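Reopening this ticket.

The earlier resolution said the output was attached, but the attachment link was broken on my side. Pasting everything inline this time so it's all in one place.
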Amino acid sequence: MDQQLLDTLRVIALPMKTSFRGITVREVALFKGEYGWGEFSPFLEYDDAESSHWLASAIEAATQPRPRLFRSAVAVNGTIPASNEKKVIEDLVTSYPGVKTYKVKVGDNLSEDIVRLARIRSLGRKVNIRIDVNGLWSVEQALTNLYAFYENVGPFEYVEQPCATLDELRELKSKIRIPLKIAADEVIRKSPDPFALDLQGAVDIVMLKVQPLGGIKRAHAIAQHHKLPVVVSSALESAVGINYGLTLAASFEEMSFDCGLGTGSLLAKDVAHLPITDGMMQISEFEPQLAGLDVAPDRFEWWKNRIMRTAELLK
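Inline output:
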């Protein structure tokens, strides 16, 4: 890790509007290089090895030129957390103007999940629903729950990571008897070697998250290797990380799906405002506004030490 880069380090805390992944305050580390700001924000429980990909992405963002872009704006989905509080959902829906697709977190409670999905479906017939399970289900649970969703709420665009392992996804794919596309997230980004995976017969769509996959160049290599449709999504980043995700999405000549990059709407405060207009987000150039957001000195040292340890793994 270049000392000049490390000298620009700021660590900030962004409060959330509602709990998401059990998080109510999102801490992120930012640093600035020749080509702008990079974000390093692996979740607190991630070890240094997993976090190293996030650091590689942040360094790439700060020190490398941007790739060729095929569009200046990206269509995005709305993200609905595992909450059935009517006001929470209504406020979030309002924060996604013009959005036609919603990704809904499910997996913990079937009846509550159906209520949540029905509430989103009630927004209108033209609303596309995709669901994200984060690998919580066994194959049998997936079969039971997906049939229940289909019967009670209607068809959905795809299900993201219904089961934890590739073998389970392949078994689910072979047994399910309703129209179903499966998107792979954790099974790819948490793999020791995403290039060694055989996704055929198990997965229809590859989820790409720029930080967890190690940056734009590596994300492209993974997509090219597997030759499946892709969706670019966020990892609950600040506007700095979201903007880099938008850059990844815009660097694909073909992008058939709305991307999961509207998660800034989950934050009560952010370092910049990246508006959603008619369901689209523009790639922006901005200087992040960090005043009043810095973490306490002990948290700064914790993140700085984490970065220095993680950087050793990139050598």
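Reporter confirms the inline version is readable. Residues 27 and 219 are 24 Å apart (CA to CA). The two ends are 9 Å apart (CA to CA).
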